[in-house]
Amino acid sequence: MSLKKLFGLIALIAFFSVVSTVILQPTTAKASLANWEAGRIIDDGIFVNNNSMSAAQIQDFLNSKVPVCDTQGRQTSEFGGGTRAQWAAARGYSPPFTCLKDFSENGKSSAQIIYDLSQEFSINPQVLIVLLQKEQSLITDTWPIPGSSQYRTATGYGCPDTAACDSQYFGLTNQLRWSARMFRSIMNASPSWYTPYVLGANYIRYNPDASCGGTTVNIQNRSTQALYNYTPYQPNPGALSSGWGTSHCGAYGNRNFYLYFTDWFGTTKTPAFSSQPTFQQLYSDSSKSIPLGWNASLAAGQTAYATVVMKNTGNTTWTRSGAPGVSDTRLATYGPWGRSSAICETSWIISCTRPAELKESSVAPGQSGTFEFAIRAPLNPGEYNESFALIVDGRTTFNGGAMTFSIKVNPVTFSAQPTWQQVYTDSSKNTALGWNADLAAGQTAYATVVMKNTGNTTWTKSGAFGLTDTRLVTYGPWGKKSVVCDPGWIIDCTRPAELKESSVAPGQSGTFEFPIRAPLNPGKYSESFGLVVDGRTTFTSGVMTFNFNVSPVTFSAQPTWQQVYTDSSKNTALGWNATLSPNQKAYAEVVMKNTGNTTWTKSGAFTVSDTRLATYGPWGRSSAICETSWIISCTRPAELKESSVAPGQSGTFEFEIKAPQSPGTYTEPFGLVIDGRTVFNNGTMAFKITVN
Amino acid sequence: MKINKNKKTPINKYRLVIASILLGLLLASAAVYVSVRIANESSDQQDVPDEERQPTINLNPPTQDQIDSAQQIKEDSVNQSETPQAPKEELAVTITAKNQNNSASTLQIRTLISSTVANGTCTLTLTKGDTVVTLNAGIQSGPSDSTCQGFDVPLSQLSTGQWSIKINVNSGSASGKATSEVSINVT
User: Fold this and answer.
1) Are residues B58 and A265, on separate chains, in Cβ contact within 8 Å?
2) What CATH number does residue A321 fall under?
3) Which residue of B23, B52, B117 is in closest CB contact with A10?
4) ipTM for the complex?
5) Could you point out which of A280, A597, B69, B132 has its C-alpha 20 to 30 Å from the C-alpha of A487?
């Protein structure tokens, strides 16, 4: 090929390629009506998505649509008549022309007004933006006229054809509020808000002129119903085929809504199943009163309680039927789907892949559903990112809506700080003895210890030997046999008590209650206690000490009352020195005040403080007025009537007597005794019985 | 020969330079074409079902189509007369829905009054042979139209068969009416 021919060929190719490039390059990107559905202009999930834009994003959007505002109207009017200012002046208006991006009302920017109302009525702010554009062109207008109907009736609300526009609807805020309120009323199917159309079959005209005709449209959702309530006409085939243009008998409100929305904000259709996370939280307790945050720090093995809230941004109602129904929605592990979770807990509904099902019985599009489940931190310290998303098992995974818990797992620490300790004389804990208690030898008392959980692990009381079951243990050294041990302790003389509460989270306080018995040998005793998780660890801190001053036992009494009655109901008193007939039966009562330092008891057995009335002079003498009902032969007429009599209180002894057969005067002394231990060193009394 | 060679050499160099420029132009054009097609294909979602499109926020300036469409709305709005239009004597009424709702056991009848009227009365008359059912309701105005505050007719008041529907709307001196028919099947 000669150089000349080569040159010609290259020139030819270059010419056609330049021409074809220019011809084939689209001049403008056309918005599409290919997916237009008259009965489904926009889905509810998008219509009510009030989280689609922040106020700042709305402001950015308004700025982008009007790069330069012709505030003074100096440019040539698109409508003729000179400059824009001159065109407006001919109609009674004058600059400044305030673009929507710069407009404010009552000190609030237009972007903020749009955002606030979208939140108040839970309507997508993008819907309100498109409404302002399709009704008054306010979004793109570079010289909107504030005094005109453009702002005054910005959404075209409240302008009757047969009267002047109603001033109660005037103003940007007011107009948007009325529109958003109407949309919300229709979305809520408010019984007091009537609309020309219903869900289902409707005859919708093409134009206000009835002769233009119309068709039956199956309105599929409330948001489409709401749009037809605003503009009650559908675009005819001519309007649909002309893009942004016009056609004979056309109406363009809903078509333009669709065109603007899809061009500016994307699809108007939601997937059947999609979700948007709106809330997630971890709590240390199942009642969810102590939040741990989103990115929680947990101790290895710690149980926590998660709540996830997802907004239904699809067009299908989520359900919880309890069976794998076609819309039963569950939270599933994600990244990848069905991954076995490292924070799995035994209560998860399906192995370690489905932590929870929907809490509510159903969640409609636009509503929010809740998923609650327990998690258990891994035993290996480290950082764990656990992602979850929604699934309808057997049908589909959700489009979007994954969320992640970032969990930092710390090594386990068990530590405590004593915050309260007390010793009481009684199990009901009415009478406190203080921290450093004075006790009589052998006296039973009741201790309470409160410890604050200063570690990172929740203490538990499972009743078994769980990994976090926390007990009070003797200390100095750990597990020594305590000298104040009582049979009520949970493990011989080393574990006085388990946790009173079922669980105590970090930062909370746990209680330990247990009885103690003072040693029989008088003296000073210090008894220290700490905490232990048996089989796992002792606590690194939190030791406390009780100091006891044990006094020698003194058993003494003072008689305060004695009487002889003829009858067991004690209606007829015979006095102290009674006169009886031979073999006459009578009923005696003796009251003694406890002047010792030891509580008298009546256990029914021979405990170390069980107190009885005994014959005296000498002790254990066989009494002449003995009756068969005496508790031990003729030497122990009665045991204590009360179950216990503390020092300073009085105890009662009641018993039957029988007068001897032989006439005469009988002096019968009695005192108190604790069988097997001691006789009282004072407190004797005597009945003087005269037998006729 | 030398002379000829000497004469041809500048011409060949000149042609080579031109050919190089054309070749560069060719390659540049091809590159532009390919990039434009790729860009168009990536942004062209016309064949993608709506449900699969991703939400977005378009921060580009408005297109000329949008500007043209908006200007017409603005001109109409600003030119709109501040004086009320003369009261309409005839109201255009359309029966938009006449659905038997078995779950609610009602016949739903809805109307569109193509004027925004603030108050008035709607009268629904259902007729089948000698049987006449009449209901009254108020009028509720919407943003740009009105509707009757009804009607949900209990099916218990109707019987199976073809019923004629007549709706009369009166608002002050204005009035309008619409008629239709509905087939009722009461089980």
Assistant:
1) yes
2) 2.60.40.10
3) B23
4) 0.73
5) A597
